[in-house]
Design brief:
mainly alpha
């Protein structure tokens, strides 16, 4: 943002003005490619399910992300190609520049709402005060977003942007504060969901670390744009950084939805890798690497079992395992809810039955 942009452009200072915008577009296109990969991965791993709210959210964010990239590309093309060396055109703000800021604000605020939806799912019935506080903060942030959009559309030339520095600082500062509130709330809810299981607590710890890292990444980008705007007011470097904010928010949310596929421990994946369902019937297959001694012991148990005996007499270890599994189920559901996945009752029954059968054996 510059107080004398009209003087900068005739002096051909394009390197740190429109050149910075061009570099921002290049990095924004790279991040858009990453969001494409993550969106494709999400739809591939959820192709067996029908239309759901997470799928609609992914499609909605991807559409806005693509529109944002189109607008910033048009903005740079307008200044550096279509109106190259036209100094009168370089001083005016093109329509795509204004609209991309509006789309940027919608993406950031939309991601905040989706994160709040996750907080509502995890914290419902546990901490009403926390939910109300986060909801109020996110709602108030929308007022700041509307104020920024209104202020940008009052500008006609780049020299007018200096008059709305207050809106820029307030919007970027609010975004950073909301990121901190959301990350802290999610980490608090996850930390209070620990059960003592190593596998469940490991997932919770990794998910907390991931939430902190992604929150720091988006916050650092917002703070970088605010700092460059304050320290270097005579160039457009902060606008190039601002191009990346929306892309980072989209990628962070997509990665959170895909987190359960690479945060789940390998032992948990191996435990249920031999479970197959055919026509709604639970059919555990024989383990190909089972030892002959285990097969012999299993055959002896079947020989001495009464034909009419359909009741499984559980040992003490099996009962304790069942109790611990039920106690740890709430934390598991909380983790999967944050990642956009809900365990169905049948899947919970299959896991419980498999765990009991192994404890009984």
């Amino acid at each position: 943002m510059s107080s004398s942009t009209q003087n900068l452009i005739p002096q051909s200072h394009l390197g740190n003005t429109f050149g910075a915008l061009f570099i921002g577009v290049v990095f924004a296109a790279i991040l858009f490619g990453l969001s494409n990969i993550q969106a494709f991965f999400y739809f591939q791993t959820h192709n067996a399910t029908g239309i759901s709210f997470p799928k609609l959210a992914v499609a909605w964010l991807w559409t806005l992300d693509a529109l944002h990239l189109f607008l910033i590309v048009h903005c740079v093309y307008y200044y550096l190609v279509a109106h190259y060396a036209d100094f009168n055109a370089l001083t005016e703000i093109v329509w795509s520049f204004k609209l991309q800021i509006a789309i940027d604000v919608i993406i950031v605020y939309g991601v905040h709402l989706l994160y709040f939806h996750r907080i509502w799912i995890v914290g419902k019935g546990r901490s009403r005060v926390l939910l109300m506080a986060v909801g109020v903060i996110v709602t108030l942030a929308s007022g700041v977003a509307i104020a920024l959009i209104w202020a940008v559309y009052q500008c006609h030339v780049f020299s007018d942007l200096v008059k709305i520095e207050w809106a820029t600082f307030m919007a970027l500062g609010t975004i950073t504060f909301v990121d901190f509130v959301i990350a802290s709330s999610l980490c608090y809810l996850l930390a209070t969901s620990r059960t003592g299981f190593s596998s469940t607590d490991s997932i919770i710890t990794k998910l907390m670390a991931y939430i902190i890292n992604t929150g720091c990444l988006t916050s650092v980008c917002s703070l970088s744009a605010m700092i460059t705007c304050a320290v270097m007011p005579h160039n457009f470097i902060f606008l190039g950084v601002e191009f990346l904010v929306a892309k980072l928010y989209v990628n962070s949310f997509f990665a959170l939805l895909n987190a359960r596929h690479y945060l789940q421990p390998a032992a948990e994946n191996n435990q249920f890798s031999d479970v197959h369902m055919h026509r709604g019937i639970y059919r555990p297959e024989l383990n190909a690497v089972a030892s002959q001694d285990e097969e012999f012991q299993g055959s002896r148990k079947n020989k001495f079992k009464h034909p009419s005996d359909n009741v499984i007499h559980l040992t003490r270890s099996a009962v304790i395992t069942a109790q611990l599994l039920v106690w740890g189920q709430e934390s598991t559901v909380h983790c999967t809810s944050i990642c956009g996945f809900h365990t169905t009752p049948y899947e919970s029954f299959v896991r419980l039955e498999l765990r009991l059968s192994r404890a009984h054996a």
